[in-house]
Amino acid sequence: MAKLILDDICVRFGGLQALTDVSFSLTEGEVVGLIGPNGAGKTTVFNVITGVYKSSSGKATYDGRQITGLRPFQVLSMGIARTFQNIRLFQNMTALENCMVAQHSRSGAGVVGAILRSPAQRREEARIQAKAQQALDFMGLGDRADEIASNLPYGHQRRLEIARALASEPQTILLDEPAAGLNPSESMELMQSIGHITELGINVLMVEHDMKVVMGICNRIVVLDHGVMIAEGRPEEIQRNPDVIEAYLGQ
């Protein structure tokens, strides 16, 4: 059963047509790659799904509910989390605090309880901290919990972004170029981590330029070029597709 369905999504910015009739789905248990040259509209797709942009036409549904037009915090509360192409951590906060922030959509504590430090609020804070630590442990950053985010090596900051997304307890996670700037060893570790994420029952939609990562981890690949879908299929089909070779992979 499809978790996420995009149906004829179009996005226009004035006279610029960023996406044209983009339609695909993400089925439970899948890792789907979204690839294409720079400017193809991949991050725009993410922004439509997560409520950053409103589509000019078409609709997106998640678990049978329309999400087109929802605000980002509402999309997150439905179980869709994301990372960003450019790292957007709270640089002056610790790794643990970054992940704790992700729990805001799951928190039930109110302002009065926080001020008075009620027993319920203390239990809530302990639960949030435990969830944050669990996400760090999962991404191999458990021993870096108390380090300031800006002091972490670049590869660890990339992993921390994924840990923060996981700390929000998502059912679906959108990864925007998670391997960008990683060396081959770090990319291989990332592939393994993404595989473990799917073992948790979390679906993954991933934008990525590293073809070794895409071909190695994705069940299915969607290809965009100038905002238009030009191909969709299994990795081996995409590798042989002449339109993809011409537009993206190179002759």
From TrEMBL:
- Keywords noted in UniProt: ATP-binding, Nucleotide-binding, Transport
| SMART domains referenced in this protein's UniProt entry, alphabetically | AAA (SM00382)
Q: Which GO terms describe its biological process?
A: D-alanine transmembrane transport; L-alanine transport; L-isoleucine import across plasma membrane; L-valine import across plasma membrane
ABC transporter domain ranges (all copies): 4-251
Per its UniProt record, what InterPro entries does this chain match?
AAA+_ATPase, ABC_AA/LPS_Transport, ABC_transporter-like_ATP-bd, BCA_ABC_TP_C, P-loop_NTPase
Looking up SUPFAM superfamilies in the UniProt record yields:
P-loop containing nucleoside triphosphate hydrolases
A GO molecular function term, named singly, is: L-valine transmembrane transporter activity
Any coiled-coil regions, as ranges? none
One Pfam entry for this protein is BCA_ABC_TP_C
Q: Which GO terms describe its cellular component?
A: plasma membrane
User: What is this protein identified as?
Assistant: ABC transporter related protein
